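re: ur question from earlier - yeah i can do the single chain one, its not a big deal. heres the input i used so u can compare w yours
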Amino acid sequence: MSTTWHRSSLLRNLKPLDLTLETDFTEEELAYLQYYGLDLQDQRPGVRQYLGYVSVYSFRVAVQVFKPERPRATVMVLHGYFDHVGLYHHLIRYLVDKQYTVVSYDLPGHGLSTGEPAAITSFVQYQSVLSTCLRAVKGTLPEPLFAVGQSTGAAVLIDYFLSMRHHRTNSAFRSVVFLAPLVRPFGWKSSLLLLSVLKPFFKTWKRVFRDNSSDHDFLLFLREEDPLQSKVLSVDWVAALREWIPRIEAADPVDMPVTIIQGERDGTVDWRHNLVVLSRKFNPSDVFYMKNAEHHLVNEDPATRERIFTLVNNTFTAALAADK
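and the output i got, formated as tokens:
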């Protein structure tokens, strides 16, 4: 699959996010959107979409907004490590078709955001990015605000509640869904040993692409056709995770209902351990298991995706009904 866009020039020409103006996409931006199936403005009548950046620290964080004609709420979608907004087109299209406005941004060092590839020095930076993006859309998009986070995206939300002490009465989010949430990755003790060896000498390590979905076309796309995939694992990111995990595991519980969806074939996160931790931290928490699903739930096979997305929609629909 050939591309008619380049990340470097997209970053160079990206404008600040402005939700008060109709977005006039450049040819290169349109090519990027079409490549990932994000050209909803052309696919869905009445949909308006926006692409721009917000500044956080030294980062320019790329933000995208998809707004249907009659939105009933707004959903913030947070992607996982090595991911970017383009890989979440199935979920974004589903939510827009259910009449939700969708906001999603690329984490620093991912997708169209600036920063060292797939790197961060502290998970605290992820909170600054989240709060900046929340401020950028506050008051301009329909409320209530919901959130769904996959893996590291879920970790950002977990940190928002447990470290920042948000709960059901002061949170920006009315309802949240965690997809295959990260607390500890699978094989964490071995990773710590490797980190102690690597960190003094290396900034990155060659990435190994693992089968984290039963959708083989998706796995092939990641390995061979996605120009936004990092080919390296950041040692700094693993070190930041090492600092974050004990803080989260020691945090006091919060009064915040969450929905957790977890694949039982997940070999990326230590999901059994993680669900025990999260069930103690969030009250109440509803957990749904996907028997044959692996880690990348937003890109599982179509039948599994449909079940997952239906659970997401049911969670948010119930929250809307409770508000009436």
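The longest helix spans residues 302-323. not sure if urs matches, ping me
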